[in-house]
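Form 7-S
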Amino acid sequence: MSSVSSPPASYHFEAIQLFPVERRLLVDGEVAAIGARAFDVLLALVERHGRVVTRDELLDICWPGSDVEPNNIAVQIGSLRRLLGRHVIANIPGRGYQFSAVVREQRTTVAATQARAHRTNIPELGRLIGRDDDLRLVSDLLDANRLVTIIGAGGIGKTRLALHALEARRNAYRHGVCWVELGDLTDAASLPGSIAAALGIGEAASLKALEAAVAPLEILVALDNAEHLIEGVAALVNVLLQAAPAMRVLVTSQAPLRLPQEQLYRVGPLAMPPGGEDVEQAMGFGAVTLFVQRARAADTHFVLAGRNIAAVVDLCRQLDGLPLAIELAAARVRLLDVAQIAASMHQCLQLLTGGFRNAPARQRTVAAALEWSHQLLSASERIVFRRLAVVVGSASFELVQAIAADVGHVTPDAEGPLDAGAVVEALAGLVDRSLVAVVVNPDAPQARRYRLLDMPRAYAAERLTAAGEADLLGARHAKAVAALMTQAWVDRWSGAIGYNDWNERTEVDRLNGRAACVWAKQHDAVDLVIAMAPILLDPVLPSAGRAERLEIAEYLDRELPVLPPAPEHLPARMMLMRFWDQHDVQRSLAEATRALALAERCGERFAAYFVLSWQLRLHVMTRDDAAAEAVLARVNALEDPDWPAIRLWIGAAARCYHAFVYGSSQVHVDTIKRSLVIARLAGDTGEVAASNLIDAQMLAGAPDQAAALGWQLLRDLQHTRKEYSRLIVRINLLAALLALPDTDTEVARPVGRDAWRTSRHFALQGDCADHLSLLAAREQRWTDAAALMGFADAVYAGRGVQRWRGEERSREQTLSMGRVAIGDDAFERARAEGERLSDVEVEDIAFARD
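Output:
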């Protein structure tokens, strides 16, 4: 084998040996404990022995690119003198330092590298938090594969994970491990020299010499930050793996090398608690642990406690579990409390700065990390990246295409236009670089969705504005979402998809719908709001808030009357009618009259059936007996038995309301059971229909059976997102528990509390408050019971409806017991005061014992 000259393999002076590549120092043959920075200073002086090394020179060599105080040098020199003796390093006043001992250099050749064992040049590790599983999996992959690439977004923690993987395996290979930092390289031609230098065979080594040097080595080489030289790194790794059969390579990159033998490991965000955990439980999640550690480093007085745990969890969620962002946010506890930091996340790119001085510039701020990633994108990838900023949450592939592709759109983009094929390629590249996350539903893995994490999305929004495309893409997004929701309405009533499946499919685009609706209202795109309203007004879908639906309903109330009636307005009219019955029954009845007239004018039989079924419910709620009977006859006449079950379910549910008030207990039970069969045929699991059986059994004198059914339904709903169904079950279960002869209020109270906190989202506070009033009476809190009754009375009066039989039963029991306990006058005074209570005050009164 030919020899290649190399730098000294070791330096010898007095009884001391210094090994640069291995970063080892032996004193009298024993390994000396020495810090990484002190080692750098010693090596710089020894390499330049015989001449003065200035302080500025030492700062440039040992703290490159860092703003540190010169006294740091004196600290390191002091520690070296204590270890090696004061005479070894001389202080030259006004100039710097000089290594005074006589140094002997021992050189080696490329061939001699074969004999070196257990090489290591691992930089300072730092603590690895929340990555135990990742470290184990990467180690397993290294056991089974010769090339492993750790990929992930900038700031996700790839480098630290790789460092710890090397440290854990430093003695696993005959020739050790070797760390190669590529981040500062700008040219792929420099790659062989950088790897050669890290291996200790000289920076000028050619590719041929490098191949020869590594051929006999059993070693693990890590190449850190390869994304900006990805093609050059891939080519070189391919050559080295062929030249060195016993070599293994670990790469960190934002994108894969795309080599046949490559095994990818994608690093995800740190684990985040779902919410509701105590301090000890929350500290079991990596995101919280990292935040607390860095917050304590910034402010020794910081303590994770009950008063701030919710804010910490919320902040970690807003930061998507990204370690760099969490570290930067935690550093702000010196200036702001956690809640203030979380509230400032709309300015996350400006707030998350001030990283460690010894970190690369691209890792000192979130914006710098994103800029580094952005610069590595192709032109088409940059366009798709910034256009995805308008997506809220996630988007299907079809929605991404509709937004990002220029087909059928006029675009001012000089870099465009992008056709559908270019969008596919760009999206794949963004996924590879971990800028776009793929969201997979385990129950439907083929239905993949795509999303930008919050901070990349904030950066993309800046790029979108800078490109002058914000309005253009806002319009595209709104039109695409409106088209999607129009189709969703058709799919709902066609029977082609089951109700539960439809709910899940539609819910994932609700965030996009909310954003698109806001844009449409701001830009007077009334037609788009009308198209989206039937889905956005649906109270059953969990992510829509009451205030949001109210704003849409009031917008439609202003805009629809000034437009000529049109068939495309009918779905919005139908759902507007349904929405108002939760707030103002007379308003709902008026909207029903308008919707029915439009349905009949357009010859839409099912729409008329839908409206009449809802009218039947409203007339029952207001106890308009004659109107209820007349409308029931019209519903029966319009119903087509050949309709899909999802349509027939509307009439079946309305008949349940009618039977509840006007039928016997047996008729009511039979009607509910028929409705339950139809609900299940429609693709629903039928919890709402079944929950009405709780009421029916309780009123039939079987509260024990009612309670057992309620508990079973809650268990069935435990891992679903059916908040509305859960609420109805809890309200009826609470009533059943309070009807038991030996009521245990300690069991009933948590059910009531959970029901109350959800009831506000669905405008069912009155239904819930009647039972909370009875709960307070069972606990002999008579004034509280009266006040809660007064609150419920005010809710029913405001809506213009009567109580259902279960709620009326609870009220009568509370009234009877309360008047006996504290007298008619005192009870009435407390009841009248309760009419003015707010929702917050109700919660304080209802659960005063908690």
